[in-house]
Amino acid sequence: xxxxxxxxxxxxxxxxxxxxxxxxxxxxxxxxxxxxxxxxxxxxxxxxxxxxxxxxxxxxxxxxxxxxxxxxxxxxxxxxxxxxxxxxxxxxxxxxxxxxxxxxxxxxxxxxxxxxxxxxxxxxxxxxxxxxxxxxxxxxxxxxxxxxxxxxxxxxxxxxxxxxxxxxxxxxxxxxxxxxxxxxxxxxxxxxxxxxxxxxxxxxxxxxxxxxxxxxxxxxxxxxxxxxxxxxxxxxxxxxxxx
Length: 243
Known about the structure:
The chain is of the alpha+beta class. The protein has a single domain (19-242), classed as Nucleoside Triphosphate Pyrophosphohydrolase (Alpha-Beta Complex), CATH 3.90.79.10. The protein has helices at 66-74, 81-84, 89-107, 128-135, 191-196, 202-215, 218-222; strands spanning 19-28, 38-43, 55-56, 59-61, 110-114, 138-140, 146-152, 161-169, 173-174, 185-190, 229-234, 237-242. The strands form 2 sheets. Strands 1, 2, 3, 4, 7, 8, 10, 11 and 12 form a 9-stranded mixed sheet that branches. Strands 6-5-9 form a 3-stranded antiparallel sheet. The two termini are 25 Å apart.
C-alpha cells in the first residue's frame, strides 16, 4: 500500500500535475570511516499538509524566479548531462539553484566555495539566498552538486511533486545547520538510523541508498553516462526506471 502524503485526503478524480521540485542529500563522512556517515535531515511540522512529521532532505518546489536566479548566480551551462536528458537547460539550472536556495532557507547552510569580489555584482536584487552567498563571500557550488535520482509523488495524492535529488559532500557546506519554520528540527542523522526509521519515508530511503552507493564509487558518480533512477508508482506498485 502507498502512504497517502496528505493524511485524510481522498485520491483526486483526476491525477494532479506534479510541480517541479529539487532536494539536496548532504552527506558527512567522518574520519572514522564511511560506516559512520551522517545525512542532514529535517522534520516537517506536524501541521504541514504534505507529509507532516516526516524527516526529509532539505528541498522544495521550483520557484518562478529560480531559473533566472540560477542563470545569474551559477551560469546557464551549470546543468550536468544527467539532468539535461530530461530537463531543458533553463529549468535544469533552476532546479540546481532551487536545491541550493531551499537548503539555505530551511537549514541556513550555504554550499559553495570562496568567490571573487566581482561575484556579488551578479546577485539579483530580489534574491535573498543570493545575497546570503554574496555576504559570506561564497559562490554557489554548481560543481559540488551531483544529480542522482528523481521521484514523482503517487497519483493518489492531491499534492504532487516531481523532485530531482542532488547530493553533495558536507565539506562544501558553510555555516551551522539550524531549524527553521519549514523544518522545526534539523539534525545530522547516522545513515543507518535514517534507513531504519519509521519517520523516514521509503522514497527518501531509496534516494539515500543511491547516494551512499555513488559516494562509494566516485568514478561512477562522475561518469556522464551514469543512469539516474526515477521512482514513482503505478497503482499500488512501486516502479523504478532509469533515465
